[in-house]
Specification:
Layout: E1 6-15, E2 18-28, E3 33-37, H1 44-52, E4 59-64, E5 67-68, E6 79-82, H2 94-104, H3 109-122, H4 138-150, E7 156-160, H5 168-185, E8 188-193, H6 196-202, E9 205-210, E10 213-218, H7 220-225, H8 230-235, E11 240-251, E12 259-265, E13 269-275, E14 284-289, E15 295-297, E16 308-320, E17 324-332, E18 341-347, H9 351-354, E19 363-369, E20 373-378
Parallel strand pairs: 3-8, 3-9, 6-7, 7-8
Antiparallel strand pairs: 1-2, 1-4, 4-5, 9-10, 11-12, 11-14, 12-13, 14-20, 15-19, 16-17, 16-19, 17-18
Helix pairs in contact: 2-3, 2-4, 3-4
Length: 380
Amino acid sequence: MNGSDVTVKNVCKVFGDFPVLNNVSLDIKKGEFFSLLGPSGCGKTTLLRIIAGFETPDDGAVIINGDDVLPLPPNQRQVNTVFQNYALFPHLSVFENVAFPLRIHKYPKDEIGDRVIEYLKLVQLEAHRNKKSSQLSGGQKQRVAIARALINEPKVLLLDEPLSALDAKLRQHMLIELDQIHDKIGITFIYVTHDQQEALSVSDRIAVLNQGDVLQVGTPQEIYESPATNFVARFIGETNLFDGTVSSVEKLTKPEDVYLAELDIPELGCIKVTTDDKVRAGQHVSFTVRPEKIVISTEKQATKRADINFFQGIVDEPVYSGFQSKFYVKIKGNNATGQATLRVIKQHAVYYDEGPDIVWKDEVFLSWSANDGYIVEVKD
């Protein structure tokens, strides 16, 4: 089974006076696990429904395998959808729910039996074939819905927040199973979610949407490490985000085409950051550094490296989470005009060595490399 390329070209959609999608364009590769990620109301489900044929855009095109499918009804697009609420027939058995699409298309009885068993094996539900959907757990119901969507061998599978009704542990388990199913069958998956961890865990690439606009498309690593906008930086994981002004720029010899910039951030003072973009003194920028990139210690770190940022502060709030601790640290000194609070995450490898040795009101030292910060937006 092979997937299809999907191209969304300049798609616009307005409901009443409310613009839902603003000239959205995406190129999704054959066999890719592609996620549409964003908060509620950002337009991701509307875009999925347009690809499926359940909504008609006001403008634009949807091209699957080189053909514009907008004139086609949903059943002629070689696309199937897995819905958030499963949409199973409660009076039918697991077997009959999965067999339903084949019976509609009048497949021979023997072929229906063989194919249904094949897909129940794929989703590990062969032993539950005779149960009614009411006898299944949430995760089992979702697997039935996935098997039913796949049995017609679509070129593209659309998944509209399929795991949101499950509890956290089951959601993680189902996410791994979903990724394994994708690897086995090799078709194109387009996955809608508002959960950043889901998207980061399984996606080949992610499109981040907000208020009808695509803000960034990239691999999970690109989205997380190099956010294109302040919204993406805040929405994907946790981060420390500040506005500042470039005070100086120096071109580095290694690596090439990388610059070391000094930023004046009112709440922090002077910080150093490397950047691929040529910025100039006087420009206003946004700067971010992820909490796990910051080293925290009760002892001052000794180093002669010029690209390390050092700060001193007081632990305002420690939060212990078992595998890690999060610290809210109030920064002091460093010629800052205001007092910033930095979020810092420390992973615990061995409890007795790296457990809660830092507590509330401790004086601590923070440091991070210029390479671990990032200029998110250049404002002028």
